[in-house]
Write a structure and sequence with these properties.
The protein has nine helices and three strands, in the order αβαααββααααα. It is mainly alpha-helical. It folds into two domains: about 90 residues, Arc Repressor Mutant, subunit A; about 80 residues. The protein has a three-stranded antiparallel beta sheet with strand order 1-3-2. The protein starts with a helix and ends in a 12-residue tail after the last helix.
């Protein structure tokens, strides 16, 4: 999934002809690199690539004062078709990214229960701060009239994702705390016994 391409084509379709700097500025304002995994630095490169593929086309150049000359692009009909395809895939298909927490819990087993609970408590605090921060930012932008109802819905989606992760973590902490034994010995007790060779009786 080429998310850089989706961002550029989407901004050109919704906002009309723009130059690469304006596209980059809008992407930076949305902080899409942090929550969407879109490389801001790749947007200019993607714009030039799409020009060679006739997905966008240059319509004019602009220069303000001594600033560099900038090329203004617009989306083509082929670009709209590409945008439709990318948008459909992004919305209808499930996409899962790397999961450091899952890898750490499954392979980097913490044998000491107290250490595990301390690590989980620290993560819980970070999640709570992040969730509350997203909610506060949404309220601030809404009150100032800087975002639409659709934008606010995206904030609420992120808030609910963080809240769901927080609730799972709280339950997992309870599960860990209720384990009677912790450590290699407990793992050995819970593991199924391996088949042992038996001596043949004469």
């Amino acid at each position: 999934m080429n998310l850089s391409r989706l961002v550029v084509l989407g901004l050109l379709e919704s906002g009309g002809p723009q130059h690469g700097h304006e596209i980059r500025r809008q992407a930076e304002r949305s902080n899409v690199q942090a929550w969407g995994g879109v490389s801001i630095g790749a947007l200019h490169r993607e714009l030039r690539t799409m020009e060679t593929q006739d997905l966008v086309e240059a319509v004019r150049t602009e220069q303000v004062g001594r600033r560099p000359v900038r090329t203004v692009y617009r989306i083509t009909e082929d670009g709209r078709t590409e945008l439709h395809t990318l948008r459909e895939k992004a919305i209808s298909q499930l996409h899962f990214g790397p999961d450091p927490l899952g890898v750490a819990l499954l392979f980097g087993r913490v044998r000491d229960r107290a250490e595990m609970l301390a690590l989980l408590a620290g993560r819980r605090e970070v999640l709570a701060v992040s969730r509350d921060g997203v909610a506060a930012e949404c309220r601030r932008l809404t009150e100032q009239g800087l975002i639409t109802a659709f934008d606010a819905a995206m904030f609420r989606r992120r808030e609910m994702q963080l809240d769901a992760e927080l609730r799972w973590l709280e339950q997992f902490e309870k599960d860990v705390a209720e384990i009677r034994h912790s450590g290699p010995a407990a793992d050995a007790e819970r593991a199924e016994p391996a088949d042992q060779p038996t001596e043949e009786k004469p």
